[in-house]
Amino acid sequence: MIRTEEVYKIGKIGKPHGVKGEVSFMFSDDVFDRVDADYLVLMIDGILVPFFFEEYRFKSGETALVKFCDIDTKEQAQELTGCEVFFPKSLSDRGDDELTLEELKGFEILDADNDNSLIGSITSIDDATQNVLFSVTADDGRNLLIPASDDFITGIDIPGRKIYVSLPEGLLDLS
């Protein structure tokens, strides 16, 4: 059984393409093309399932068309629409200290300017624009938006799942 800590999210399956089982795959990391891998891992009904692919071709810099083994019809491909796609960390070419934005969910945000006091925990990440934002739930229940900028991040403790930030005065009062 594949465990969530063994993989990281790289994209999502889109609509079927054609009638022979191909699907569109929107990806944020093209690691599947850079390393020797025969499969991707899809989240199916809450379970991580490996799907071996016959072939893929790039449609754009962020989309590929993928033909998985044993997915031979448009109807079978349709069942995969919307599935999140993951890649095994063991096959990845990234370093041990590299994380995707998705992997930062659950990390605590600590105020480096105030004795590392807890600000809150990351519940989601908004990367829809060039300025990525951490959506943070504070201890008092407030929802905060904190820029995920190198200008504000003073340190990251990966094993401890903590991010230390030095924020401009008044930023936390905006929420």
Task: Characterize the structure shown.
This protein is mainly beta and 175 residues long. Strand 1 and strand 2 form a beta hairpin. The model has no long low-confidence stretch (mean pLDDT 89).
Shape: elongated
Widest sheet: strand order? 1-2-5-4-3-6
Strand content: over 45%
Which structural class do the helices and strands define?
Answer: mainly beta
Radius of gyration (CA) equals 19 Å
Question: SSE string, helix = H, strand = E?
Answer: EEHEEEHEEEEEEE
Name the poorly predicted regions. none
Number of DSSP strand runs: 12
Name a few traits of the molecule.
single chain; about 180 residues; mainly beta; 2 helices
Question: Can I get a quick summary?
Answer:
The chain is mostly beta strands and 175 residues long. 5% of the residues lie in helices and 46% in strands.
Give the helix/strand layout.
Blueprint: E1 7-17, E2 22-27, H1 31-34, E3 39-44, E4 47-58, E5 63-68, H2 74-78, E6 84-88, E7 108-111, E8 117-126, E9 133-138, E10 143-147, E11 153-157, E12 162-165
Parallel strand pairs: 7-12
Antiparallel strand pairs: 1-2, 1-6, 2-5, 3-4, 3-6, 4-5, 7-8, 8-9, 9-10, 11-12
